[in-house]
Specification:
The chain is mostly helical. It contains 19 helices and 2 strands. The chain has a two-stranded antiparallel ribbon. It is globular and about 70 Å long. About 30% of the residues are buried.
Length: about 350
Amino acid sequence: MAAILSQYSTTGFYKAPVSKGLMGSMFLTCTAMNMPLLAHMRKYLVCKLPDIFKEGEVWRLLTSRITFLDTKDLVCGALLIYYFRIFERRYGSHKFASYLLATCTIATILETAAILVLQQFDIDLHSGGYLPPGPYGLIFPLFVSFFFDVPRVAQTHILGIPVTGKTLTYLLGLQVCSTSIATVISGLCGIVAGLMYRYNILYLRRWFLVPRWMAKLSSMSVGWLLRSGTPQEGAIGATLEIQRAQQLEMLEQQVLLSRARDVRRQQGQGFAETLVGPENYWPNQNGTIFEGFLRNRRHNAVDAEENNIQPSEEQVQTLMEMGFERARVLSALRNANNDIHSATNILLHES
């Protein structure tokens, strides 16, 4: 579980104001719709096809995308937005907003067309012609970038089933889109929209672009509300449980990296001789858990200086293409003994 949760960092919404605003608007709208005084407003989040075209209420296509009405979907969707904020940091808020504008528009068009076509063939979706409320077109296109750009790390097996650091995110997405046939269609349309944008089909990147003046106006008007401060270096969790999980995770990573390095360096010796003794990581009677950790860090630093093995330019470019800065890439590769998968895990944990 610690390996799965390692991708969720403690830096909050730093450099992710669009994601912060999206999550905030979801929670505020859902809360307002469940208050007795505003319960009658829920009807504006309902979008029934093809009635909206007959009655001239096409604007319902927009309002139905604002938030989830089901608490389960709201919580899962918020967790997905919180993790996918890493893409806003990589792309920049302006490009990220343009991405959401394009994919949400295309996903809504595809979803509307799919339901209308199925209605013509008298296929019962058990939804009464209603579009499922929720920002499916904002969340599910990001699974495309998540699949292609975030590598599979920290793999293990549970009952023979492979589990990686990405498994929990996929399970959350499956939970959101598995409510009904209509939500499955919404999720699939979102993924198709993400693929279309990724490969720039129909020149979507050219046609869907948030104007610079609108981005500046938004930054001046509500930017102060959505802006987050710089996280403190070495920030830790706010609760003892989170802190303990982070400590164990760091220790586990150091153990695995050290053992892998020794195995590669001492392949001619027996496996038992390559294992690092537990005294390097666990406290003695008068010590603390961090003494062994720091002792191992110093040991690794000395080994790195002695070996003086520089990472290859191919490894550096591979990680830089994922959106990380060169200095951070070089530091991560040094800490991971030039293992690109471990370096990726370190970079994602720092994001």
